[in-house]
Structures are given as C-alpha cells and as structure tokens.
UniProtKB/TrEMBL annotation, chains A, B:
HTH arsR-type domain boundaries: 27-119
InterPro entries tied to this protein: ArsR-like_HTH, HTH_ArsR_DNA-bd_dom, Metal_resp_trans_reg, WH-like_DNA-bd_sf, WH_DNA-bd_sf
Record's protein name: Transcriptional regulator
Lineage top rank: taxon: Bacteria
Gene3D superfamilies: Winged helix-like DNA-binding domain superfamily/Winged helix DNA-binding domain (1.10.10.10)
One of the record's GO molecular function terms: DNA-binding transcription factor activity
Keywords tagged on the record: DNA-binding, Transcription, Transcription regulation
Organism: Bailinhaonella thermotolerans
Taxonomy of the source species: Bacteria, Bacillati, Actinomycetota, Actinomycetes, Streptosporangiales
Amino acid sequence: MHRIPADRLDSRIIAPEEVCEAIGALAEDSQVRRAAEIFGLLADPNRLRLLLCLRAVPGMCVSDLAAATGMADSAVSHALRLLRAQSVVRADREGRLVKYAISDKTIEDLLSRTVDHPL
Amino acid sequence: MHRIPADRLDSRIIAPEEVCEAIGALAEDSQVRRAAEIFGLLADPNRLRLLLCLRAVPGMCVSDLAAATGMADSAVSHALRLLRAQSVVRADREGRLVKYAISDKTIEDLLSRTVDHPL
DNA sequence: TGAATATCTGAACAGACCCGCAGACGAAGG
DNA sequence: CCTTCGTCTGCGGGTCTGTTCAGATATTCA
C-alpha cells in the first residue's frame, strides 16, 4: 500500500485509504507523459485523417495525402514530422517521393477502436 | 470507389487510385472530430492521472483526487469539467462531496491499452 | 548543368489550452 | 442565521499548437 507524499499531508483528505490505493494505481510519470504525448498526436482531426488514409493505403506519399485530406502539402509535412518524431509513422524515400506508413501496431489498434467502434 | 473532390483536382496527384481509396476509408467528418476531441482529453498528463485514479478507485471526490495527483483543487475541478462535458466521467453529489466515476466503457479500454501495454 | 518536381523547414501569426487566483455556490451543522 | 467545508466558475496571463508563407533541400531527367 502506498503512502501519501509529505507535501500533500496538509491538504484535506476525505478517504486516506482510497487516496493511497489511487496513488498506487498511477503509472510511472514518464509513462503517463508518453501516453499523453501519443494521445496528443491523435487529438487533431487532420492528423487523424492522415493516419486513417495510411491505415487503408500504406505507402502513400505527401502530395497524395494532401489531395486525399484536403490539406496543404506543407501542413501534411509538418504533421508527418510530428508523427515521425514519435515513431508513429515511418518514412521511406523512393526517388523523389517519400512513402509513409504507420509503423506502430498499437496505434493501428487505437485507430480501429476509434473509427470502427462508436467512441 | 470514391471520387476526388473538384477543389483538389488542380493539385498534383501521383496515384489517383490510391487517393480515391484513401478518401473512401476516411470516416465521417463529425466522427473524426469527435474522436480527436476524446483523444484530446487523454492528451494531458494530469487528466490522464485523474482517470487512472478513477479507474482504480471509482467514486473519489475532488479533494482526494487532488491529493492523489498533487494537483490543486481548482485544477482538478477544471479538468473534471472538461471530462464531464464529453461524458467521460459522471458526477454524483453526496452531501457536500461530489463523487466521480468513469462513465464510458470505451475510455476504460483505452486506458488499459495505454498503461498495461507499453504504447 | 539546369529545370522541374516532391518534400522539408523556419518564422510568424492566430487561436486554443491549462492553471492559479479570487470569489461564488451549495450542503451540513451549530 | 452564520460558519465551515467541498466544489465550482470567470478571468487573466503564460504557454503550446496548427497553419500559412516563403524559401531551402533533395532527386530526377533532359
């Protein structure tokens, strides 16, 4: 069972038992931040659309993604850079095209759960 | 098979077939926005912590949540208001306490997938 | 090499977001 | 009634985000 950190002992606590249990249920700080970061990437309709495109058609290039989503090339590029930085998508250059694909299986699960199921 | 919207015909498209297929795979606009909104709620470490607490201990009150997460009461209240607005959590008054609980099964799934699995 | 094409990048702006503060509200108990 | 306590809310400011614009970079082909 966890203890209540010293810097919170002054706050009014109603049910100390439950607070301890809740603290015990919290994940590591870094893990929580990481999760929030990933969710943040999915929190934008345009990025979500890009990922949905890539889920259906892996290997699309930037300008096709722009055409499919109605975004400007530049906006697509910016968005993909963020997704790439977190290894959500992978980029493979082929000639002058750069083909993108979802590189994280977990993300695909989240997308399925999102679109297929109501949410 | 879908058609490419007229306002994008001027843009340079590499693989028209794939663009059409991708467009067909896109969900309804409102559905995408809704999903992005939900993900947005999970995109903040503090809100995530609150939800993790509530997942472990349903029915916690605001001040206990504040103690468990190290947030100020006010911040907890602000966060819970957003979550309530999207029916992610439910609030039940009991005397002067307000007890919160996760009201959406899908959200609990997402949380599990987040914390239990690496992500 | 030089032109054309696809993609990337940095700067700058508008808008959204999160939290602290101060005070209001609602419920219980003296 | 008045106080106390738990919770809520409007506002202000500091920060983060998404987009556009202009221009840089990379690759192909004539």
